[in-house]
Amino acid sequence: MPRRTPADALADGPLVLDGGLGTRLAERGADVSSALWSAAVLADRPELVLDVHREYLAAGADVVISASYQVSHDGFARAGLDRATTDAMLARSVELARRACEEAERGFVAASVGPYGATLGDGSEYRDLGLGVAELRAWHHDRLRVLADAAPDLLAIETVASLAEVEAIIAELDGVGVPAWVSVTPADGRLRSGEPLAEALAIAAASDDVLAVGVNCCPPDEVTDAIVAARSATSKPIVVYPNSGERWDAATRTWHGSGAFPEALVREWRDAGAALIGGCCRTGPDDVRTVARVLEQGR
């Protein structure tokens, strides 16, 4: 019998995504302070990564996102690690997520594909770095294929800040053979580059390789307007997974402000048309339980 796909599941109703991986690893005692962030834990303490995936599945997640967000060939090279090690860690990230799903006898694996800026480890994913489409295509090419070869259920293209990177990733998805969602990071209703949010989502949604489009790594109060922008661009499923609402200071590597992930907001996102809902930085299992409860109430 063919394995059930995320598209099959979405036909039955909205799906629950997991929460912040780095957040939960830090709460569990892992050191995520280096430029490699959670990727360092993937290399040094893989069992802890597996445990966090298990926690999110137990909290009600239908999709777990792999620990590959900051794993890249040049980022690992700066840390003194070779290409073979990088490839092994990319594959390990998918294998750990798959193992957790198999143990739970449920769930899908989304292989995280962070943007170029994320691998610099200094908050650069929140700004346009001025790279062109050709440069970004070359940078993403090998990593996408290594992750695809590890056989995830889909690719989670995350925290994209510019039209150029959206265009580059869409071009590189051609021939990869794994469906993807493309999620951009907005601020004040636009991309971090200042470019139109709806244009980015329309470019992504036009690809046959893209299952869903949406936003992540943004304040919760940005999400409803982003759903409206996404719906104006496409009829494809919409994915949303914001931060807790706290603000990241890349210079001091600290969070500021207070976080809130209220049930009423999750219900608002569901009613506005979001089909995959979860949390990003500073969210955890309790937030996933909230999402699962709201989505169950709507079925």
Fold and architecture overview:
The structure is a single chain. The chain has 299 residues and is α/β, with parallel strands linked by helices. The protein has one domain: Homocysteine-binding-like domain (TIM Barrel). 44% of the residues lie in helices and 16% in strands. It has helices spanning 6-10, 21-27, 38-44, 46-58, 73-78, 83-104, 133-149, 163-173, 197-205, 223-233, 263-272, 285-297, and strands at 15-16, 63-65, 108-113, 154-160, 180-184, 186-187, 190-191, 210-216, 238-241, 247-249, 254-256, 274-277. The strands form 3 sheets. An 8-stranded parallel β-sheet has the order 1-12-9-8-5-4-3-2. Strands 6-7 form a two-stranded antiparallel ribbon. Helix 4 runs parallel beside helix 6 (83-104). It starts with 5 loop residues before the first helix and ends with a helix.
Question: What are the main properties of this structure?
Answer:
two-stranded antiparallel ribbon; zinc; globular; 299 residues; S-adenosylmethionine-homocysteine S-methyltransferase activity; 12 helices; alpha/beta; 16% strand; TIM Barrel; HCY_dom_sf; transferase
Oligomer: single chain
Number of helical regions: 12
**How many separate domains?**
1
H-E order: HEHHHEHHEHEHEEEHEHEEEHEH
State which percent range the strand residues make up.
Answer: 15-25%
CATH topology: TIM Barrel
CATH homologous superfamily grouping? Homocysteine-binding-like domain
What's the alpha carbon Rg, rounded to whole Å?
A: 17 Å
Share in helix: 40-55%
Sheet with most strands: strand arrangement: 1-12-9-8-5-4-3-2
- Unreliable stretches: none
| Largest β-sheet summary | 8 strands, parallel
Based on helices, strands and strand pairing, what is the structural class? Answer: alpha/beta
Query: What's the rounded overall pLDDT mean?
Result: 91
The gross shape turns out to be globular
What distance lies between the first and last C-alpha atoms, to the nearest angstrom? 26 Å
CATH class: Alpha Beta
